[in-house]
Design goal:
Belongs to the metallo-dependent hydrolases superfamily. DHOase family. Class I DHOase subfamily. This protein is of the alpha/beta class and 446 residues long. The chain is built from 12 helices and 20 strands. The longest helix has 18 residues.
Length: 446
Amino acid sequence: MKRTWIKNARIVNEGKIFHGSIVIENEVIAEVLAEETVPSQPCGEIIDAKGYYLMPGVIDDHVHFRDPGLTHKADIHTESTAAAAGGVTSFMDMPNTTPQTTTLEALNAKFADAATKSIVNYSFYFGATNTNADVLPTLDKSRVCGVKLFMGASTGNMLVDRMEVLRKVFANAGMLIAAHCEEQSIISANTTAFKEKYGEDPDIKYHPQIRSAEACAYSSSLAIRLAKENNARLHILHISTAQELDLLEDKPLSEKKITAEACVSHLYFYDKDYETLKGRIKCNPSIKTSEDRNALRKALSTNMIDVIGTDHAPHLLKEKEGGALKAVSGMPMIQFSLVAIMELVREGILSIEQLVQKMCHAPAELYHIERRGYIRPGYQADLVLVNPDHEWTVTADCVLSKCGWTPMEGQKFHTRVEKTFVNGDLVYSDNKVDQSHRGQELRFKR
């Protein structure tokens, strides 16, 4: 029996910070001990975490690992390596791959592939299309994290734009619907107008005006109306505007069926950053104004934003060249999400307890993940140790995503992920990832 004692930590869990330690026994948390209490049985390994925060591993509800079919950009193994280095112990991957994850055959193939490749824990969304709404009731709800609905065209072009199909998706899903909300007719009209004025590929700075705040708010409003009509569970992904916040309720997660995610990119960047970072920060929905960013940041200290994710979406740098229409959308963020939000903690924008709520507890609660997301006896030992006083700068050589770059390059951080545990195993330590480790499928209580 393998027992590990992590002692002298500042444990952040369930709205509290306390000095204590935990005991890992094989895969699970066996004991949570306050102050100087010692384990009930001897431990073969002892880790002194003095001065460090110990928190549950981050659960990222929104990634694009590009596998299968787009593996020149990224794959499950490389991106789960980056996740482990960033303190992310579980991810939920999107269906816009090649082939798209819109059939049971493609879904099962992804699960089988991840079992051989992924260093951390995993699940996969099933993608809704204009033709597969009848398949949704047949999905294994204990295994599939949710249904992904593109109410705006993005990478992979999985747009669902027929009202009768949208109604059927909301009626048939029977599980959480994670929606990308941008109204395509507004985007198309804006695209035509900007091309007439500025040519075939307008400057990247016009991206937030083409994929506008109006397009986001209109689509999010429609999604909310359809969810209410069908008593469905709706999770609006990557909220990017102050307008959308007005559509949300400031209530505890347990009291609502319509929830929202903010992504690190929209919390960190704003439209002035296009001047220096150009296509590197092009994403859908677009990076918008400083007022939008500040409104999102302010909402982090409320219950309007429930989850912080990444929308981790690698591309090669050569694919990011061009303007508002030709540069592809998406950026790699998963390795730096936890330390980036720790910077917002340092600035007083949210507390570290709120960080843990929105990056660890809330994803587990929202998706009904079994025995993860909290530091509790009997839960899987998915944990991260964070040094709150280590200044460092992101350089290209530390990027572990296959694409080899990040818009965070040159960014100075003041905290560092020291160790990451997945199912009780130490998978990241001393700047090294255990490449032999394999995570587990997430399971869901339905």
